[in-house]
Structures are given as C-alpha cells and as structure tokens.
Write a structure and sequence with these properties.
The chain is α+β, with helices and mostly antiparallel strands. The chain is 51% helix and 18% strand. It has one domain.
Length: 95
C-alpha cells in the first residue's frame, strides 16, 4: 500500500469516528431535554431547534459537543457534513 492510500484510509476512519461521536453527543442532548426537537449540522455550523425551527443553541449547547468540535473541526471539517437528528433519534444526512 502506498502512503497516499494509507493516509486516505486513516482519514476515512477518523471521519467515521468523528461522525459517530457527534451523533452520540447530539442524541444525548435530545434525550435529556424536552424542548430541542432537532439537531442540525451543515456548512460549518450546528444547532438545536425547537418544533418551530427556532434556534435553541444557546439554551442547549453541550460542552462535550462544543469541545469536540472546537478542537477538531478545523482539522477534519466535521461540520461540513449535512446531518439532521430528530427528537425520535432518526438520522438524516449524507456521508
């Protein structure tokens, strides 16, 4: 295996691990609180929304999620992936 292929495979693994962690942390907030109904992420931003689509990030930001994304998002572009998780924990997005 050449270096380029090996690097690409490792980056793919990092992206899968990162996506799984973001999903885990977002679901944790959705399970814990009644008001946020949806977690959305795309184009470099992420937020929680109520049933009317109003932004609830300030009220329900999660330190673990913030720390994870602040530390690694610039390197790996996790928030560039479209992702939507509903209150019933259904996932919609592309990867």
């Amino acid at each position: 295996m050449n270096a380029k292929t090996e690097i690409e495979q490792n980056i793919d693994k990092i992206h899968k691990i990162g996506r799984a962690e973001i999903i885990r942390l977002a679901r944790k907030v959705l399970r814990k609180h009644d008001k946020p109904q949806i977690f959305t992420m795309a184009m470099g931003v992420y937020t929680f929304e109520d049933e009317n689509g109003d932004n609830m990030y300030v009220q329900y930001c999660n330190k673990e999620l913030d720390d994870f994304l602040c530390c690694l998002d610039n390197q790996f572009g996790f928030t560039g992936w479209p992702l939507r998780i509903t209150k019933d924990l259904q996932i919609d997005g592309s990867y």
